[in-house]
Specification:
Oligomer: single chain
Distance between the termini: 48 Å
Number of strands: 4
Largest sheet: 2 strands, antiparallel
Number of domains: 1
Structural class: mainly alpha
Radius of gyration: 19 Å
Strand content: under 5%
Helix content: over 70%
Amino acid sequence: MEIFEVMLPIAGIKFNVLLLIAIGFCVGTLGGFFGVGGAWIVTPALNIFGFNMSFAIGTDLAHIFGKSIIATRKHNKLGNVDWKLGLTSIFGSIVGVEVGAQVVLMLEAVGNVGPVVRWLYIVLLFGLGIYMLYDYISTTRSLKATPSDSEEPPPESPTGLAPKLHKLKIPPMISLPTSGIKEVSFWIIFAIFFLTGFLSGLLGVGGGFILLPSLIYLVGCPTTVAVGTSLLSVAFMSGYACFSYSLKGRTELVAASIMLVGAAIGAQVGVLATRYVRGLGIRLLFAIMIICAGVSVVLKQAEVSLEMPILSTIAGYAVMLAAGGMTTLIFIKLVKGAVAEKSS
């Protein structure tokens, strides 16, 4: 359908406009709901459908920047953004982003950027997904073992390494009232955001797919606050990373702008859906989503290793099918929640 194809002048390729809008809408919905940039879907998808990996990274960062601003504003209205924590993230994030971007250029120079980035994606996506599934199952069993007379879910308490990290008294210490954290070391926060910034520059992600679990399991934020604050931090990191990649001539602004049209609508859907899904439910859906994304990257790497082009096509459909399926589920949750709220 050539009528829907547009020439992308910087990347030097033709691309389907409807596909770009569909990618933007799905990732906008998922980003607003999970507090992530969605690059763990977009960067592999763009690469699978014809973008060079470095162009896929730079273009996705531009799209993430615009979408994250829209979603953050919506979450802020719901009280889900810890501004103090988000602003603190700037210090470590910018340093990490620049280090990651330089590593990508070094890998590109020796011709290894594609395989290295894909293998890192595979390890991180499956590792985080499996851990979050384990956390969901163990927490659910614990709640069932301690029944409560109240119909409301109990308030979330810090899990993972967060309680132990809170005990590390490395000055200066800061408090995060919005997240319910009385005291935590600034250097712990710096290290977490440096890591996510590094991954943002290296993998072409806003950092959200690792930042959300980090805010929950390392910082100790409640899930909904972690979602909103993650988006704020993603906006900072992706904005700087986009600027850095643009200076290096690796950002296709035409494609990013088209994706942003769909993302602007999808973000509204995703943010509103967080009002009707419990924190544990968000964690479960997030774990399933990133494992699905990991499967698509495995297929793409297998296509390169085994020289079977059909696997690349399957990978492309797999990642879009997973994103579309999860987007549909989130929309259904939103509609059901809104109907129940209106009838009560």
